[in-house]
Structure formats: C-alpha cells, structure tokens
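Hi Y.,

Following your request, here is the sequence exactly as I used it, all 348 residues.
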Amino acid sequence: MPLPDSRFAVKILLILSAQVFAPQAFPHHSFTRFNQADIVEIEGELIDYRWRNPHIVFQVRGTNDAGDDVVWQVEGHSLSILRRTNASPEGLEVGDRVKLAGWPTVRPSNEIFVHNLLLPDGTELLLQSGVAPRWATGVTLGSEREWEIGGTATDNTGRKGLFRVWSTKFGRGFDPLWLDHYPLTDSAQQTFGEWNPLTDTAAPGCRPKGMPLIMEQPYPIEFVQRDDVILLRMEEYDTVRTIYMAGDDGLNEPERSILGHSSGRWDGDTLVVETDNVDFPIFDSNGTPQGSNPSFVERFRVSDDGSQLLYDLTVTDDEVFTESVNLTRNWVWRPGEAVEPYECVETD
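Below is the corresponding structure, written out as tokens. Let me know if you'd prefer a different format.
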C-alpha cells in the first residue's frame, strides 16, 4: 500500500535506524521492515521452530556471505493463514538441514520473511501467497490456497443473510481497509511523525487490537444473534464485539475499552452500528494516531447475490481529522469456512 512521500520518508528513516538495535530473538513486526523487492536464499541447520500464531517462526544456523557463522531469525505468515492451505509442519525436525528463500530486511541483518522452505526429503513448503515452487525437487505443499478463493453466490440452502461466517479473499484482489491519505490536524501530523513502527506497535505479540484497527483483520468473522445483542466474532486474538440492539442496555455510563461500546439498529437490510467510548491509541496499521473520543458508524450489508458482505465505516475524530473519514472493504462467503481458535502464543 503506497504512502504519501512525507510519511514514507519518516517510516524508512525509523526502520533503518532501528535495525542497528534489533533484538536477536523471534521477531514480530510489520511487513514494512522487509525489502519486498528482493529475495534471498539461506541454508543451514534448523535449530528451533514454532508453528503458531501470531507468526510461524524458525531459527536456522548457517553462514552469511562473508562466511561467518550466524543464526538466522526467520518469520512467516500466521497459522490462521497457513491452515487454509495444504502446508503443514509435518516433516519438520530440529537438527535437519533446510533451505529457505524470502524477503530480507530493509537494512541487511540476520532476519528473513520466508516464502519457500525446502526439507531434506525434497518436500517444498510454499508459505507466501502467490509464490511458485523454487526448487521443485519433490512434493510441493501450500499450493492449495483456500485463502485466495473468492465469494460464492447463494446456493439452494438459502444462506443469504448476515448471520454466517465471512472470509477475506487474500492475495490478488485483497480489499484493504485503510486509505493512503488522511486529512490530519497539525497535532496529529506531529504525533504521526514521532511514531516508530518497530517500537510503538499498538498490538505487539498477543495483545489484542482495538477499534477500528481490529476491523482490518483478514481472518474469518461471524455474526451471531443472541437475544437482544449481536455478537461479531473475529478470529484474530479470539475477539468478540458485542452490539446492543435493544437501545437501553442498562449501561448508563459504559466503561471505556479498546473495542468501545456499540449500539446497533436495522436500516432495511443494513446493520448500522454506532460505537463510542473507545480507548485505543492507534487508528490504523501505519501509525496514524487516535484521539480520546472518536466515534464510528459502521454499515454492514450483504450483496444482492449473497456472495459478499459490504462494509462502510465513517469515522469522526476532531483531535485527529479535520473532517470525517470514510473507509470501505468487503468480505466473501465461502461455504464450509469457520472462525477457528486463534491460540496466540507470546514471543519468547
């Protein structure tokens, strides 16, 4: 996602300076720290791996271009993505000699975002959306990507309403939530300029995301009707948003929280949700700040053929934006999909 020139310059300077002090442990950072225009290969002994959320991670002992011994810190996608392919950790053994290919960091280091992993028996795991086999010496796993399948129109079961599981079409055609440009106030622009993408992450490790950042999550979501409330279940961090549909929910002064307090109503076939009392410092994944009293109006509507869930979000935050901001995205319906347990494990 391209950023305006001034924002991009700030991000790159912060990333480059922070690489000097990057901790030598399993990483958990944004894609912005990796050079997505380059691919490198490494080979060595697999000394540890974790097949888990929020990211799969490996440690590989090998040598660098200068011939020096190095332990490579390798990060991959989340388990939530990979379990929707036919890639699996079966066959991975600590002590095996493996080969990997992926993105290096922006500034040279011993960290890589993995795309391809070759096991000793010739099995190759494809761990990034859209990549092709690199060595093709045996069986290839990961090419069956349910994750990239688009929406299915309503079938004869009549599953056309809101209350079902919705998924993201990943890879090509992915529909991001955020904008490239925002009408920032002077104070918000200054705060944004001081944000460090490596140290100021709003939801590091297994710390849940708040509103509206959680709405970017690319894993399945599900709407569930429970008496006078609607539950919006989201796979990432096992998040559940409660939408009160009865008006007076007995909360005279709702407590501030990272998800805030949401009230819903129906406008024809559109679910309209109004949310306030949000206490979360970051607006989006690029580090745009959030004020102390933002308000959100969301509209969820199923497409006429039942294949997509259309989403519209209007944000009002006078401390951050000089005018209201409107964001859109969509989800798709794939029969048989489920909201799986996220089971996040903190980085050691």
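Residues 42 and 100 are 5 Å apart (CA to CA).

Thanks again,
Q.
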